[in-house]
Amino acid sequence: MLHGHGVYQEEHEAFRRTVRAVVDKELRPFAADWEAREEFPRELFTRFGELGFLGLKYPEAYGGTAAGELYEAVLLEELGRCGSGGVAAGLAGQFTIATGPLHLFGTDAQKQRWLAPAIRGEKVGALGISEPDAGSDVAGLRTTARRDGDHYVVNGSKTYITNGVRADFVVLAVKTDPSRGHKGLSMLVVERGTPGFSVGRKLQKVGWRASDTAELFFEDCRVPAENLLGVENQGFSQIMGNFQWERLSLALGAVGAMDDMLETVLEHVKQRRAFGQTLAGFQVVRHKLADLYTARECARQLTYHALRLHVAGEYAVAQTSMAKKVATETCCRVADECLQLHGGAGYMMEYDIQRHWRDARLGPIGGGTSEVMNEIIAKQLGL
């Protein structure tokens, strides 16, 4: 197919072939079953740890490979092709959002305790930011952490937390100084089994069904002060810094998902016959596919542009927000059109396209809605 990415080197494409072989053999054949069970095996974390996939951008001192973010970008794209948004989200959550803050802000002792076992896939992590009354509005968080001797006493709740049911630790956004708005936020690591920390129900979702998404509750939960990440009341910038990679990861996953859908639908229109010819014989179908491939390519190149800037260390918040918005919205449109091209079969649960369609819909919501992306872009314009 039409390639010429410009962002990846040959070593990245070699890594892509490795990842694709793993995805095709170890994930894809089981995706429908895991979706039906609403859970993928926990062993996938240790398997990805063995393969070195959970520590691509982390130092060798903690079991990472220090290969860099471009390798992780390739992994994210290929996970978008695994047939289950939930499997992709659960595995990617480990290396994109749960361990990122540990790597960036943790002490050596904290990294040995949580980052190293997470890179091995032995401990599952989650990032706890969203609350019932505050998602993208991070400054509006209500979960508090009051210092009491050598502990913080945490009260509040979180929701829509990926890997929250199975998490061995949660990197939690809390208000350590509620009087200071976004200047009073901190990040604490809370371990499973800490008294006062409980996991509520596993949430039922439209898509991403193989991933576990949880409500978390904290009632006078005493967390050792040594579990504070970085400096107290510096949490807002810590959270915002991690958002850039989370948003790029969602854009990259959307690009991979579109690749998978378009390859599938291309085969379908070549084989499916109607009115004496294949669907591909109709000009309207050919032009539809020309439009979809063009839209996908626009989303891909914008995403790669933001990725290039990010990897070069530039402050690319506007381009990242644009890429996240465009790639995830285009993915929804591609999924919808591909489902339509499958006709009645597209609406049947046995066809993967309906799952892509359901999974894609989270893209413009998760990790900051498209509306929030527009606000960020407008702010960069000085509005």
UniProtKB/TrEMBL annotation:
Q: Which residues form the Acyl-CoA dehydrogenase/oxidase N-terminal domain?
A: 10-122
> What InterPro entries does this protein map onto?
Acyl-CoA_DH_CS (IPR006089), Acyl-CoA_Oxase/DH_mid-dom (IPR006091), Acyl-CoA_Oxase/DH_mid-dom_sf (IPR046373), AcylCo_DH-like_C (IPR036250), AcylCo_DH/oxidase_C (IPR009075), AcylCoA_DH/ox_N (IPR013786), AcylCoA_DH/ox_N_sf (IPR037069), AcylCoA_DH/oxidase_NM_dom_sf (IPR009100)
Q: Name one GO biological process term.
A: fatty acid beta-oxidation using acyl-CoA dehydrogenase
Q: Does the keyword S-adenosyl-L-methionine apply?
A: no
Domain (Acyl-CoA oxidase/dehydrogenase middle) spans: 126-221
Give the source's domain of life in one word: Bacteria
**SUPFAM superfamilies found in the cross-reference section:** Acyl-CoA dehydrogenase C-terminal domain-like, Acyl-CoA dehydrogenase NM domain-like
Keyword Oxidoreductase listed? The answer is yes
Named cofactor requirement(s): FAD
Q: Which GO terms describe its molecular function?
A: acyl-CoA dehydrogenase activity; flavin adenine dinucleotide binding
The Acyl-CoA dehydrogenase/oxidase C-terminal domain is annotated at 233-381
Q: In which pathway does it act?
A: Amino-acid degradation; L-valine degradation
Q: Which UniProt keywords apply?
A: Branched-chain amino acid catabolism, FAD, Flavoprotein, Oxidoreductase
Q: What family does the database annotate?
A: Belongs to the acyl-CoA dehydrogenase family.
Its recorded name reads Acyl-CoA dehydrogenase
Species, as recorded:
Corallococcus aberystwythensis
Q: What is the lineage of its organism?
A: Bacteria, Pseudomonadati, Myxococcota, Myxococcia, Myxococcales
